[in-house]
Design a protein that fits this description.
The chain has 322 residues and is of the alpha/beta class. Helix content is 41%, strand content 20%.
């Protein structure tokens, strides 16, 4: 099969539009339509269907899209590897993924240590949600990702190797002038009358469950588009928020934190592909473990050792932002 046609199909699925895919690929819309139709005839199944806003893959099309994307990514990696060999480049770029709070904290710290040890290394960092990062590791887009078992949790997948780094305790972030700034751990009841801001449904659900266990409710009156927006609303005194403890050292200067009594936690893990491992991935894993341990000692996940995938699939209380 022609990978050009596969690329057209994957682009149509991603953009949800024949015309948008055609523009991106520098083809005509009719040419893209013919490519998809030819692919459907070749496979003997309908791959896309029209809807009010464009097109989307059928169930069979979605199955083919996942495999096609993995194949295209591997083909692109092969081309890059050949070009690197031709140009005398000994090491391919190290592609790292991390959830937003980890991308802002321990990951840059670990990469800095890697660069100090290994010298010049080409690398990139892609923030994202855990499920998205898992998919990109499987597809070959990422050499390593730092993820969490926050809801909806991490799937057991034989294509990746998982390493447990530790449990991350959630903290409450406050504006610097807040009356509780500088206090020791507080019970959630002491914050029940506060206005809260959240940036995703998972985080809001976590906060709601934690408050409900104490017999109170949390007023989530504000919503933010992302983690920086959430912190901006806290800094300007509009609300308080729940954030991962791993983010504490990377917080902006105009906010502070207070710990919670019996805080919610999430497990933090690294995932790497079981094949075609990047040569810099192994040393970076050790540096990530050290960076996380510097925050607090890393206990074992409940009922397991550090590489037990079944235990890793059991979610702790956690947040989907990170």
């Amino acid at each position: 099969m022609d990978l050009t046609v596969w690329r057209a199909f994957v682009t149509v699925c991603r953009t949800g539009s024949l015309s948008a895919a055609a523009a991106e690929l520098h083809h005509t819309q009719s040419a893209v339509s013919r490519q998809i139709a030819g692919l459907e005839r070749q496979l003997g199944v309908l791959l896309v269907e029209r809807h009010a806003r464009g097109v989307r893959p059928t169930p069979a099309g979605e199955v083919f899209r996942r495999h096609a994307l993995a194949t295209l990514n591997e083909a692109d990696r092969a081309v890059r590897a050949v070009r690197d060999a031709r140009d005398g480049v000994c090491d391919r770029p190290l592609a790292i993924g991390a959830t937003p709070s980890l991308a802002a904290g321990i990951v840059p710290e670990a990469v800095r240590s890697l660069l100090q040890q290994a010298g010049s290394v080409r690398w990139s960092l892609l923030p994202g949600l855990s499920a998205q990062l898992h998919g990109r590791v499987v597809a070959g887009d990422l050499d390593l990702a730092v993820v969490t078992d926050a809801p909806p949790g991490l799937a057991v997948d034989p294509r990746v190797e998982r390493r447990f780094l530790g449990l991350d305790e959630m903290v409450v972030v406050l504006p610097v002038g807040h009356p509780l700034a500088g206090c020791g751990p507080v019970r959630i009841e002491a914050l029940a009358d506060q206005t809260w801001v959240e940036d995703n449904e998972g985080s809001a659900a976590l906060l709601g469950r934690h408050a409900a266990r104490a017999g109170v409710s949390a007023r989530i009156d504000l919503a933010a588009a992302d983690l920086p927006g959430k912190l901006a609303l806290v800094a300007t005194g509009h609300a308080i928020a729940l954030v991962p403890g791993a983010l504490t050292r990377a917080l902006r200067a105009d906010v502070t934190t207070v710990g919670l009594v019996d805080p919610p936690t999430r497990g933090v893990y690294t995932i790497t592909p079981r094949r075609d491992a990047h040569p810099r991935a192994a040393p970076l894993l050790e540096l990530l473990a050290a960076a996380f341990a510097s925050i607090r000692p890393a206990p074992a996940p409940p009922g397991s050792g550090t590489t037990d995938d079944q235990a890793a699939a059991q979610p702790h209380d956690g947040i989907t932002d990170a």
